[in-house]
Design goal:
Blueprint (H helix, E strand, L loop, with lengths): L32 H35 L5 E15 L4 E14 L4 E14 L2 E8 L2 E3 L3 E5 L2 E7 L4 H13 L1 E16 L2 E2 L6 E9 L12 E2 L1 E3 L1
Antiparallel strand pairs: 1-2, 1-11, 2-6, 2-7, 3-4, 3-5, 3-8, 8-9, 8-10, 10-12
C-alpha cells in the first residue's frame, strides 16, 4: 500500500509537545566544610589584623600628642687641629685633632641611654682614626658633652684629585674633615625602655690648622642625624 503524502495537510489527533527533562546538579549550593572553614579563618585573621593596626595607630598618636618628641641635636662646638701632614713618600697621615661636641636633648619626658658610642674621623671619604667613648645616660632637657681626641698616624691612600685638594687645603691652612658617630641608644619614657636604636650622626666641618703659636677661630657646626 502506498505511503500517504507527508507534505499534505494532516487532520488526525493533535501531537502532544515534547517534554523537557531537567537534571538538578547534586553539588549546587552546598559548601565544602574545609573551604568554608578556611574562608572563615581568613576573614577573622584579617579583621584582627585590621583592628590591631587601628589600635596601634591610635596609641602612637596619643603618645605623640603626650610626648611631643623632638630631634636630639648634635654640634661640634670647638675643634683644635695641631697636625695634619700627609707624607707622599709612604702615604701616611700624621694627625692631632681634638673636638668638643654637645648633645642637646630637648624632650621633657624622654631620657636617652647611650650604650655605645664610636667616633670615626674621615678625610676625603676615608677613615683615618677612631675612638670609643664612654656610655652615659642623658636626662630630660639636658645638654651633654663629648670630647673625642684623634692623635697618631694612619695609612691614607688618596687619588690624584684628592691629593690636589689636600695641597690646596694645606696652602690655605684650613681642612675639611668629617666625623661620624655610630651609636646604640635606648629611649626611656617613664618606666618604659625601648629596644636599642642605631642612629648615625655625620659632622662635616672646616677646621684651621694651629701652627707656630697661632690660634684659629672655629665656627660651630651642627651635625646631621640619621635614624
Amino acid at each position: 500500500m502506498p505511503e500517504p503524502n507527508l507534505n499534505g495537510a494532516y487532520y488526525g489527533p493533535s501531537i502532544p509537545p515534547t517534554t523537557k527533562t531537567y537534571h538538578r546538579s547534586r553539588g549546587g549550593s552546598s559548601c565544602n566544610p574545609c573551604s568554608c572553614l578556611f574562608n572563615c579563618l581568613c576573614t577573622c585573621i584579617c579583621q584582627v589584623i585590621f583592628t590591631l593596626l587601628i589600635a596601634l595607630g591610635v596609641i602612637a598618636l596619643v603618645l605623640w600628642l603626650v610626648l611631643r618628641p623632638n630631634k636630639v641635636k648634635f654640634y661640634v662646638t670647638d675643634a683644635t687641629l695641631t697636625q695634619f701632614d700627609l707624607s707622599t713618600a709612604n702615604n701616611t697621615l700624621y694627625y692631632d685633632l681634638a673636638l668638643n661636641m654637645t648633645i642637646r636633648n630637648p624632650n621633657k619626658r624622654v631620657g636617652i641611654y647611650y650604650d655605645s658610642i664610636e667616633a670615626r674621623a674621615m678625610y676625603k671619604g676615608q677613615r683615618f682614626a677612631g675612638q670609643n667613648l664612654e656610655p652615659f645616660y642623658q636626662g630630660h632637657k639636658n645638654t651633654s658633652s663629648l670630647h673625642p681626641v684623634f692623635k697618631g698616624q694612619s695609612l691614607l691612600l688618596l687619588g690624584d684629585r684628592e691629593k690636589s685638594n689636600y695641597n690646596n687645603e694645606k696652602n690655605s691652612g684650613v681642612y675639611e674633615i668629617e666625623v661620624k658617630l655610630y651609636m646604640r641608644i635606648r629611649l626611656k619614657i617613664g618606666w618604659i625602655k625601648t629596644h636599642k636604636i642605631k642612629p648615625k650622626i655625620e659632622c662635616d666641618f672646616k677646621v684651621p690648622l694651629e701652627a707656630n703659636g697661632r690660634t684659629a677661630n672655629f665656627e660651630e657646626t651642627r651635625c646631621h642625624l640619621d635614624w
